[in-house]
C-alpha cells in the first residue's frame, strides 16, 4: 500500500532528525527561550527580510490559528474567511470555542477577493443593525488554499490594501506555505508575503518538520503579550528547543524551499498521470495537492493499492479525491501510481 | 410621526401595568421563588397541557437563546439554524461567545426542513473527517420566523421526528409565539407546540409584557441545573416577581392570545393596504410582521410620517421594509398608514 | 411576616411607577436610543460632573459586572478582587464563564488596599514565571462592600493612584452606591467617586428602581464599542426606555440620594436595636446592611416573624445574619423588629 | 554550567530517539489512528490493568489539563484544586479561559484531603445561595504534587471514596507520575492509581519522552466524544504516531519506571548533599524534585555554576529553590553539585 492521503504521512526530513539526535542530551532552558529558538528566529526574520518581526513557535495548525485569532480579536468581533477555510470546516469549532464567529464569504476556488471583504465591511458598517451583528475584526486566508490554489501578487496586494483601509488585520495561514511559494505559478516571494499581511505562519508540520509552525508577527500592534496567549491556550512547548532546532534546520541553506520544490515536482507528475488518462480536476491546483475526479468504481479499484483522501461527492457516481505530494514523496511511488491509474483504463 | 418599526415600541398591556402598581409595595423573596412566579408557572403549564414541564423566566431574547443553547450543548457541538435565524444574524455573536458554532442551513422563507436537518446530520455523521467538524447538537427554529412565516403542524411534526431520530433536541424561539399561534394560517396550538419540541420559550417582550420570556423545558433531560445557567449568564432577575406577575396576567383569561389576535388583525389590514396599492411582498407572512417591497423614492416620502424597519435591498431602486403590528397597534394608526400609502400613488 | 432579607423585596419607588404608567403607550425607538435614555444620561453626567462620560443602562448586577469586565480585559488577564467580592462569590462563575480568572486578595472587612494591589502587581510583574501566570488586568471593588463597609476618600484616592501607576483600570461596583454615598461615615461624593475610577456603575435595582444599573465610563480608552459588548452578552434591553425613565426619575430632584438617606436612617435604627440588646456585629457597617451575630436558638425564634439573610456561621452556636434596610423600609416595620428582638431577652 | 532547573532540560531517552529514527520514513495515517498508537494504548492499558480504559495522547500538560477539565465539567461547574495546583498557578488561566472557575482548597504540602472536599461539597450543597455559587464538578490533584509530595494509598482511597459519594469525578495530573510511583515512600502502584480515580494522565514530557502525555479514561461516563474535545482544543497531533511511538517505547520492558527510579536515586543524592550541609527543606519531598532553603548570598555564588529554579521567598534573606533530577541526570553532575555546595561552607 502506498499512501498519498496527505503531506504528514512520514516523520521529518533526515537533516532534522540528525540535528535532534546530535543535540539530544544537551541541556537548554525551556519555553522557547533557548539559543536554538533564537537562531531560528533570526534565520526566519532574515528570510522574510523582516528584522523587526516577532517570531513564535507553536505545535499544530488548529492551535496556531486559534491562538492568533483569539489574540487579535475583541470579544464581539469575528474573522472573515472563505467558507472553505480550514478554521470554518475542519477545526471542530476551535475558533467559536474561543468566543468568535467565523464570518464566511462564498468561494469556488478557496480564495476570497478584496471586493468581497470591502463589501462585507461596508454592509456591516452602514447597517442600521450595526451593533446587533458580529463586527468583522480580521481576515483569514490560506496560502495556498485548502484546494491548493494560490493568490497572485496582484490579488494579495489588492486584498491587503482593502484590509488596511478597513482596519482589518490580515492573517495568512501558511500551513503549506513552502508548497505555495515554490510552485511554478507563484509570483510571490516570502518577503512579499510577509509585507502583504499583518501576521502569518510558516508551516513546518507538512513541510519537512516532525511538527511545528512558526508564527511571524509583522504588525507591531499585534505583538504585545503574545506569549501569554500561547501559554494560556496550551501552545507553549516546554522543550521549545525542539521547535527551534527544526526551524533552524529548515531555514539553513534554503532547505525549506528545496524540499517544497521537490513536492511540487512530484505533484506535477501526479497531475500529469490523471490528465494523461483523461480525468478532470476539481480544483485547478498548481501546488502539492491534486484533486482529480474519478468514478466511484475506479476509486474502489485504485484504493486497494493507493491511499488517497476522499474530498467531496461530485455526482451520483463520481467523487473528487486528493493526492498530496510532500517533501518525502518518491519517484518510485509516483511511477507506481501511474501504473495503477493506467491499469484502470485497460 | 407614527411608528410601525417593531412590536416593542410601547410599554406593556394596561392589565400588566395595573398588576405591577397594585403589588408594588408587597414584599417577596427574590430570584423567581415568589408566589407570583409560582402562579405564572402553573398557568403556563396548564396552557401547555404540560404538567411536568419546568418553567423559567428571563429578560430578553438574546439572553434566553444563549442560556438555553449553552445549557443544552456539549463544548464541541453546534446548533443548527436557518441562515436567517436570529441567533445567526442579530445577536452580535452571543452563541459563539458562549463557545458554540451556529451551523447554518440555507432558507428562502426563514424555515428549515426535516430533510435538511437529516441530511446535515448524516453528512457529518458519516464523514471521514467526523471528529474534525463541529458536531450538530441541537436544532433552533423560530415560530413564527424572522420573516413572519410559520411552520405547519405537519412540517413541525416531521422536523421533530427527525430531531428525535438524530438525538438533536429541538429548541423553538417563540419571541413572537402569540402572533404565530393566533394567525389565520396557523394549525398549531400551544400544547401541540410544547409536545413537538424539547424546549421553547414564550415571548412576553413583544407580546404585551414590559419585558420577559418564559422558557418551558419539556424534555426532562434538559431540566437539570437550569437555574445555575440562568444565574451564570446574568438572566436571573433579582425581583423575579416582576416576571411572574406579567406572565400570570398574560395567561389569565387568555389575555396573551387575545392581544396577539388583535395584532394579527391589524397586520392583515396593513397587508391589505400594500396589496391594494400593488406592492409585492418580500415574505409571505400571515403574522404580525409585513414586508412590502417599495421603491426607495416612495420610502423617502413615506418615511417622513411613518416609522418602518429597513429590511433588505431588493434591487438598485427597491427595498424590502417591515411594518410590525402589535398588541398596541391602533385602528387609527393603521388608517393613517392607508392614507399615507395611497397618497404615494397620486 | 416582615422581611429584612434584602434591599430588593419591593417593587419601585412610586415616582418611578407613576412615570412608567404615564408614558406606557408612548412609542419610542428601542435599545436605549430613545429620548428618555438621553435625558437620563445627561442627568447622570451632570450629577457626576462628568460631561464627557459615556452612560449605558443594563439589567442586573451580574450581567453588568460580566459585561464591564469582559470589555476591559484581554483574554489572558484577570481581575483583582477581594475574596469577598460579589464577582468571586455569588455570580455562579460568570466572570470565569467569560474566560477570565478572578485574582483574589484577602480581606476581613470586604475592602482591599492600595498596597495589596501594588504588591500583587509587582509580585507578578517580576516573577520569572511571569508568562505562566494570569496577568492582573484591572481592579474590582464594591462601594459599599458586600459587608456594608466603605472606602474613605483617602483610601480610594490611594488605591486609584496605584491602579494608574500599574495601568490597572479600576472598576467600582455600585450596586448599592446610593446607600454608600449618603451614610454618615462617607466622605466621598458622586463626582469624587467618578473621578477616582475608570468605570463604575450606579445601582438602581436595590435603590428604588424596578430594575436597572447605569454604567458610567470615565476613561475614554474603555468607551469603544461598549454597546457591542452589551448586545452580545444579552444586556441591551429592547425597551431601553424603561431604564431611561427610571434613571431619569431617580436623578430628578435628588431622588436617588433622598431615598438612600432614608434607608440609612432606618439601618441606624436597626443597628441600635441590636446594639441596645447587647449583640455584637460581624461587620462594622455604616450603611443600609447590618450584620448582627445571634445565637441559633434566638434566630429560630426571631425567624418566625422576621425575614433575614443568613450570612455565615460564627461558631457552633452563633451565626452572623443580615438585616437590610432600603428605600422602602418603614418605621413601623423597624419598630416591630425592636419589639421582636427585645422579646428575645425576656 | 550544569542545570538542575527542571526535568525537561534534555531531549528524550535514547531508546525513543532510536525508534523515531528507525520509523521516520514509514507512512502512517494521522491523528492517532495508526498502529503505533494502537500498540501504545494496549501496553498502557495492560500496565494499568485496565482493559476497558480509553487512552488518548496529547502534547503538553496545560493543554491536557484544559481538555480533560473542559470535557468533564458542565458550564456552571468548577474544579476543586489545591491552591498550589498547577492549573491554579502556572497555566495563565487556561481553565478559566475554557469558562470554568478553579475552586481552591488551602494546603501546606500541595495535597488536599478527603475532608476538605467533603466539607466544600456540603458547604455549597446546603447553602441558601446554592445557585449563586459555582458548583464543584470535579476534583483535580497532582501525583506527585507541585512540591514533590505524595498521596498515600490510604489518602487517595479516602479521597476517591468522598469523590464518588459527592459525584465529583477525580482527575489526577500525572505530569511526573513515574517519579511519584517509583520513589521509596510510595505505596501505590499504577493499577491502583488507575482504579482510584476517574481519569488521569501519565506524563511523558518530563519522564523520558521528547513530549507527550497519555490520558487514561477509567470512568466510562467520561469517554464519550473525547476526541472531539482534543481536536477542538488543538490537542490532536497530525503525526499522532510520534506520540504512539514514544509511549510504546516507554511502556516496553518497564522503561518508564526504570528511568523514573534513576531520577529518584539521583534526587536522594541531591537531598543528601543539602541535608549533609545543614540546609532545611521547604517541602518534604521523596520524589525527583528537591526544595532546599538557602541564603540569597549563597544562591548568588552557587548560581554561577549551577542552574536551579527559584521557588519562593522564605524570609528577607532566604529563599526556597528547586533542584530537579530526571531520567537524564548524571552521577557526574550530582557529584559536581556536592562539591559546589560544600564549597559554600568553607
Automatic annotation (TrEMBL), chains A, B, C, D:
SUPFAM superfamilies: PLP-dependent transferases (SSF53383). One of its GO terms (molecular function) is lyase activity. Keywords: Lyase, Pyridoxal phosphate. GO terms for biological process: amino acid metabolic process. Residues 5-243 form the Aromatic amino acid beta-eliminating lyase/threonine aldolase domain. InterPro entries: ArAA_b-elim_lyase/Thr_aldolase, PyrdxlP-dep_Trfase, PyrdxlP-dep_Trfase_major, PyrdxlP-dep_Trfase_small. It comes from the Bacteria. Its cofactor is pyridoxal 5'-phosphate. Belongs to the threonine aldolase family. This is Amino acid lyase. It comes from Vescimonas fastidiosa.
Amino acid at each position: 500500500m502506498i499512501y498519498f492521503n496527505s503531506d504528514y504521512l512520514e516523520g521529518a526530513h533526515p537533516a532534522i532528525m540528525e540535528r535532534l539526535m546530535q543535540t539530544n542530551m544537551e541541556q537548554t532552558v525551556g519555553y522557547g527561550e533557548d539559543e536554538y529558538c533564537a537562531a531560528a528566529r533570526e534565520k526566519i526574520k532574515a528570510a522574510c527580510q523582516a528584522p523587526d518581526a516577532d517570531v513564535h513557535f507553536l505545535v499544530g495548525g488548529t492551535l496556531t490559528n486559534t491562538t492568533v485569532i483569539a489574540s487579535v480579536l475583541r470579544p464581539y468581533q469575528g474573522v472573515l474567511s472563505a467558507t472553505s477555510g480550514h478554521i470554518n470546516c475542519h477545526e471542530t469549532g476551535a475558533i467559536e470555542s474561543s468566543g468568535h464567529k467565523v464570518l464566511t464569504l462564498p468561494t469556488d476556488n478557496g480564495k476570497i477577493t478584496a471586493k468581497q471583504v470591502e463589501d462585507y465591511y461596508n454592509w456591516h458598517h452602514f447597517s442600521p443593525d450595526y451593533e446587533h451583528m458580529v463586527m468583522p475584526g480580521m481576515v483569514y486566508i490560506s496560502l495556498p488554499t485548502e484546494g491548493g490554489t494560490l493568490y497572485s501578487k496582484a490579488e494579495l496586494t489588492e486584498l491587503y490594501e482593502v484590509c488596511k483601509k478597513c482596519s482589518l488585520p490580515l492573517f495568512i495561514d501558511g500551513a503549506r506555505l513552502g508548497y505555495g511559494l515554490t510552485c511554478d505559478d507563484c509570483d510571490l516571494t516570502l518577503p512579499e508575503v510577509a509585507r502583504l499581511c499583518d501576521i502569518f505562519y510558516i508551516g513546518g508540520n507538512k513541510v519537512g518538520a516532525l511538527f511545528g509552525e512558526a508564527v511571524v508577527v509583522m504588525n507591531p500592534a499585534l505583538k504585545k503579550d503574545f506569549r501569554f496567549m500561547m501559554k494560556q491556550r496550551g501552545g507553549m512547548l516546554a522543550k521549545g528547543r525542539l521547535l527551534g532546532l527544526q526551524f533552524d534546520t529548515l531555514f539553513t541553506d534554503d532547505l525549506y524551499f528545496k524540499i517544497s520544490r521537490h513536492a511540487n515536482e512530484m505533484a506535477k507528475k501526479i497531475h500529469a498521470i490523471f490528465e494523461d488518462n483523461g480525468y478532470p480536476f476539481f480544483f485547478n491546483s498548481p501546488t502539492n495537492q491534486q484533486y482529480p475526479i474519478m468514478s466511484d468504481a475506479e476509486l474502489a479499484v485504485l484504493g486497494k493499492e493507493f491511499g488517497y483522501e476522499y474530498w467531496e461527492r461530485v455526482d451520483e457516481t463520481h467523487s473528487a479525491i486528493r493526492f498530496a505530494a510532500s517533501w518525502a514523496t518518491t519517484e518510485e511511488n509516483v511511477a507506481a501510481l501511474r501504473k495503477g491509474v493506467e491499469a484502470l483504463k485497460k
